[in-house]
Amino acid sequence: MSLRRLERLEEPPPDEAGQIEAGPLTPAQVIEQTHQESEKVEKELKEIEILVRQSTSEVEKLAQRNAQLTNKLRSMETNIDTVPRQDIKEIYTAAQEAQMRLFMMRGQVEQLQNKQENLQRFANSLNKVLEISDELGDAQTANDTPKIDPAQSIGIIRIIDAQETERQHLASQLHDGPAQSLTNLILQAEICERLFDTDPGRARAELSELKGAVGVTFQKVREFIFDLRPMMLDDLGLNPTLKKSIEEYEQKTGLACNLTITGQDHRMPPHTEVTVFRVIQHLLNNVHKHAQATHVQVSLTVEDDKATAIVEDDGDGFDVPEAIAASRERKTIGLSSIQERVEMLGGQIKFNSSMGKGALVEFWLPVT
Fold first, then answer.
1. pLDDT tens digit string along 232-288?
2. Quick one: three-class SS letters along the chain?
């Protein structure tokens, strides 16, 4: 299993990256490009499927290995005075390497599965376009060829820009958070290694501190992964994931947040669940960063045909047109981006706020 192969899947083909064909497209050109894109996506899906199987198998092996080493560690800690120093060093090193490898492989599997899911939705959309084009046949002539909507293109460009800005933000968070913590752990491990032969007592104390630091770092990484993509959203659905997210939000921010869930208790399409979760998550982050609020109320109602969510706070409020315009100007994942995301999925979102009077944001999405 190679990370290099995964990175290759993320990169656009060198002959197409950064190239945008100028001028209106004819139906034949649109259909041809859609066919080509569909073939490339299907090829990538097959490659990712192989990688997912290989990575999952590797995770299972690493999990077994990690369990074996954990049992060895427990046994060694019980009889640490009788275990040779070299054996202690080797077992701790092997356990640390196994845990780190297992963590990295699980993250790789999750990343591959997320990409597989996104590509599959994209492939389904392309196939739908091709089906419609086959039904239409050659009924339309070149004179009444529909042109690509410039407004739609601008919306897509904004979303791409916002995604890239968010990726830069995540890269910075990884560098300043988990990456820095792991560097410190490596330094502590090297100190322990040097102390084993000269001062065993201090080495044990350093190992105890190292173990605590590993636990703290691991918890931070788990929180970071949950923010990126909570696995329980796929396993358990929106309701329990939202409840857990609200609980952690209260613990982190100290801000009282009440969640009310009513209506049908059934699973929705994955893209609907993740969009509802992300929009609520983004709105809550905005409240924490900008609103100076003391209380937030989140409501979710799931009906047969749609899901409706409301996020209301008692903070400073904001000027809605000004905030949306600023979001578009900064090209960040702000109010304008979530508005476009909701509307692209066939829903609607309303912002109700003014300076000094709190804010209420309500949006709904179809669930069928």
1. 788 888 999 999 999 989 998 999 999 999 998 888 988 889 889 989 999 999 999
2. CCHHHHHHHHCCCCCCCCCCCCCCCCHHHHHHHHHHHHHHHHHHHHHHHHHHHHHHHHHHHHHHHHHHHHHHHHHHHHCHHHCCHHHHHHHHHHHHHHHHHHHHHHHHHHHHHHHHHHHHHHHHHHHHHHHHHHHHCCCCCHHHCCCCCHHHHHHHHHHHHHHHHHHHHHHHHHHHHHHHHHHHHHHHHHHHHHHHHHCHHHHHHHHHHHHHHHHHHHHHHHHHHHHHCCHHHHHCCHHHHHHHHHHHHHHHHCCEEEEEEEECCCCCCHHHHHHHHHHHHHHHHHHHHHHCCCEEEEEEEECCCEEEEEEEECCCCCCHHHHHHHHHHHCCCCHHHHHHHHHHCCCEEEEEECCCCCEEEEEEEECC
Range with lowest mean pLDDT among 58-67, 118-127, 145-154, 313-322: 145-154
Higher pLDDT, 183 or 52: 52
pLDDT at 12: 43
Tokens standing for 45? 């899906």
Instruction: Give the predicted TM-score (pTM) of the model.
Output: 0.48
Angle made by CA atoms 292, 339, 234, in degrees to the nearest 5: 90
Which sequence spans correspond to the domains of the chain?
3-11+25-148, 231-366
**How many residues in the chain?**
368
**For residue 262, what are its two tokens?**
């009513």
Q: How far is CA 221 from CA 20, 47, 146, 180, in A?
A: 38, 28, 49, 12
pLDDT at 257: 95
- Give CATH for domain 231-366: 3.30.565.10
Q: Rounded to an integer, what distance in angstroms lies between the CA atom of residue 188 and that of residue 206?
A: 7
Q: Which residues contact 334 (CB under 8 A, 6 or more apart)?
A: 162, 323, 324, 326, 327, 328
